[in-house]
Specification:
Belongs to the phosphatidylethanolamine-binding protein family. It contains 3 helices and 9 strands. The chain is mainly beta and 173 residues long. Strand 1 and strand 2 form a beta hairpin.
Amino acid sequence: MSDPLVLAHVIRDVLDPFRQTFSFRVFYTNRLMLNGTELRPSAVVNRPRIEIGGTDLRVFYTLVLVDPDAPSPSNPYLREYFHWMVTDIPGGTDVSYGRELILYERPDPRSGIHRMVFVLYRQLSRASVFPPLMRQNYSCRRFAQQYHLDIVAATYFNCQREAGSGGRLRPNN
């Protein structure tokens, strides 16, 4: 069975291959989100509840939410658009125990189907990660290198405008 992150090109467009070593669960309005779940903007108005695995409260994590398909999958010149950032999340808790450095901006695609990617990183120490200056043209790869972060988990959902129809338009596929 193939990895959904590979099949959706999250591993390639957003992340390098990594070994998922940690669990985290994403809930929108008490509904567990799985890889590839289809959600409309009306279902993601409010930030999700996210539970972080682990038991060591002395280990901290950073969570980001990015859109690699902004502003459209056929022309993603704002890739990776930054929707949310929470740092200093203790293991075994949820994001409400962390520091929200970039406020949640609900996904609201205007054209095509957008992959909305959650990435969970293990931090070296508390208060060691800082937000980017701008939301557009963010890079999960550069971010991890800059702050010496290890990717421990990732997941994604698909989102398109309320009246959207049709498939993903992607160049070179």
